[in-house]
Amino acid sequence: MSSVHTDSTTPLAAMVTISAQVPEQAMTAALLGTERAGHGVRIRADGLIATVGYVVMDADQIWITAHNGQGSPAYVIAQDFDSGIALLKTTMPIGSDYIPLGSIDLVSVDSPMTVYRHGETVFHCEVIAKREFAGRWEYMLEEALYTAPPCNNWAGAALVDVGERLCGIGSLLMDIPDTTEGTVLGNMFIPIDLV
Asked: What per-residue string of b and e applies to 154-165 under the rule 16 or more CB within 10 Å gives b?
């Protein structure tokens, strides 16, 4: 039986779309734009949503759309600049399906993983590295999850293990150093442990 707390048979029911409006004068507007979109994942039955922070950074308006089509304004309750994760709540309840939290410690190199994005089919990949991430423009992680093949539309996507536990939040598409091929195009996920 699935460990996902939902009436659905898939973690897709826990996924949401995030639309954010950012004022033109905001510090991040020039670099990241004033209209942003990404994904989020409910991590508790009370509707707490985790996403990658740059989707909602400096936003003055946030709209969440759930898997069932319901929508609600939302607000940021925590923005962790050290990990790059943001936590959101909707002003109205729009679902209680959530994905239980896993851990980077339960994942090893070559582990098969699934990426969930709101409204899209699932994407299968595997972990190709677990190592430090240092972004000169934002946060540094002692250990991040790197996956391949690359998936598009990754911002705030959920990286889920075979036990259907949330292990990471989608952050970047990048060239990942690889000892056999030089670099491999893939994704970097922020470990959910940092929540």
From this structure: bbbbbbbbeebb
What whole-number distance in Å separates Cα of residue 58 and Cα of residue 75? 11
194: tokens are: 């940092």
* Closest C-alpha to 147, from 157, 135, 136: 157
Q: What token pair was written down for 13?
A: 């029911």
Q: pLDDT tens digits for the chain (195 residues)?
A: 333 333 444 799 999 999 999 999 999 999 899 999 999 999 999 999 999 999 999 999 999 999 989 999 999 999 998 889 999 999 999 999 999 999 999 999 999 999 999 987 799 999 999 999 987 666 789 999 999 999 999 999 999 999 999 999 999 999 998 867 689 999 999 999 998
Q: Which of 159, 97, 165 is nearest to 126 (CA)?
A: 159
Cβ proximity of 42 and 99 under 8 Å: yes
- Cα–Cα distance, 111 to 95 (Å, whole number): 30
Q: How many angstroms separate the CA atoms of 62 and 91, rounded?
A: 10
Residue 2 identity (one-letter amino acid): S
Q: Distances from the Cα of 134 to the Cαs of 138, 142, 150, in angstroms? A: 8, 8, 19
d(CA 89, CA 55): 14
